[in-house]
Amino acid sequence: MPRKSSGGWFLRRPARARPARSAPAPVKQAPPPVPAPSSGGSVLGSIGSTIAEGMAFGGGSAVAHRAVDAVMGPRTIRHETVPAAAPEPAATASSNSDACGMHYKAFQDCINSSGSDISKCQFYMDMLSSCRKSSGLVA
């Protein structure tokens, strides 16, 4: 007996009527949050609580410092003082004058850096001499 063909896979079957949907069920909302129970304490009670908490924190901090000191060794604090720079040797009055002070300093720097060869500093000596002559500080 031959089979009855349904028309093949390429032919669509007529859509069946679907039953009508009912309205969606209402979504249950979460209950409102429960208010925190009030402590009913006074201002002084909350201040006292804060003080007690601070003391506990301080005590815990002290214990932690001691534990670290036990492992790492005690902490030492050294106060170092830096000595003031030694004052420069007293110079002649002409070195302190504003007019020739910079020439005198340049001449002294040249002498200190050149060692025994003073001929390298002749230019600075000439500048210092001309400054002293023009300002009337010739000794």
List the helices and strands and how they pair.
Elements: H1 43-72, H2 93-96, H3 101-114, H4 122-135
Helix pairs in contact: 3-4
Describe it for me?
With 139 residues, the protein is mainly α. It is 45% helix and 0% strand. It has four helices and no strands. It starts with 42 loop residues before the first helix and ends with a helix.
Helix content: 40-55%
Distance, first to last CA: 148 Å
Q: How does the major sheet shape up?
A: none
* Estimated radius of gyration: 50 Å
Q: Strand share of the residues?
A: under 5%
Low-confidence stretches: 90-96
User: What's the mean pLDDT score?
Assistant: 75
Based on Cα principal axes, name the global outline. Answer: elongated
What is the element string, with H for helices and E for strands?
HHHH
**Total strand count, please?**
0
Structural class: mainly alpha
Q: Count of helical segments? A: 4
